[in-house]
């Protein structure tokens, strides 16, 4: 006899499959996709990724990816690679009811917990790619923090691998119950490969309960052969707080939808983004700060630098619902163009349906200041080094928002690598 909750999980997948069959590849005639052209995406070349892989150099994450990014000892770590999964969680947290595991383990040991939350924040109806993940995805990472449990040490997870001619589908669910706290560092990565296309689609669903607090650091370092699509949303209840930091340096093309839904009175969300493109990379981030209750606060700062023939898009919206009085919303996007052929689109927006609010936004696209460069050159600093120092200074406001030296060092290494050519 099939357990009832297993049937629920099957129903989720079946519903997503029905939705998936109605979806087509997004076109530039759709406003959200107007600046990201998928006409070169040959979706038929990708098969679902399986565990039958003999190339262990591609199957296993390199040491620098596995290295802890936090400054203190980790409370737990999950490594979800192509043909293996490793799960570590301290006994103390297990005894407190913390769940930090993979979907495959939950399906075997606690399917009711997975069925309670999967697909509740990001719906398959939101597009082809979320429907695809929920219809075909086999595994993911699940974090559950019970009521009143506060974790001082960070948790760390890695989803590794997007192999040539395969589709890697990932799903992350984070649930913090009332009055709980956690810090979670998550990375999606794959081998640095510019030959032979690969595909990744992902979902991130986050639920922050009343008076709960989450620090979430999310890194994307996929290889430059990867077509990458993600739909992410955090739902924050009364007096809840999320500090959400993004770092994106990989992929051939990325289209990322990130929504912050402040649904409870007094909810707070802080979003910080770092991206650095080169070659012919195209990164498109679409952010929503949705103020759906009174006395909510959001603060977004995204910064990007661009080299060569790369292209970035940031499109942001602050939405204030009717009755969401005393809203305080801010968003800013700053871009530094480092090559003649690089291009950045920056489109902030406001939609306000309440009359007692404070909402501001701003966007800039510019080049390295010639006076700053001249000053450094006049002090005997070589031009390449001077430009790197200016770029590091440009990103410093983002670095100051990152709570861990290991993550800051990783970002600074990205800057060094991009500008070393």
TrEMBL record:
Residue stretches making up the SUF system FeS cluster assembly SufBD N-terminal domain: 6-155
InterPro entries: Fe-S_cluster_assembly_SufBD, SUF_FeS_clus_asmbl_SufBD_core, SUF_FeS_clus_asmbl_SufBD_sf, SUF_FeS_clus_asmbl_SufD, SufBD_N
Top-level taxon of the source organism: Bacteria
One biological process term in Gene Ontology: iron-sulfur cluster assembly
Domain SUF system FeS cluster assembly SufBD core: 165-394
Annotated family: Belongs to the iron-sulfur cluster assembly SufBD family.
Protein name: Fe-S cluster assembly protein SufD
Species this chain originates from: Leptolinea tardivitalis
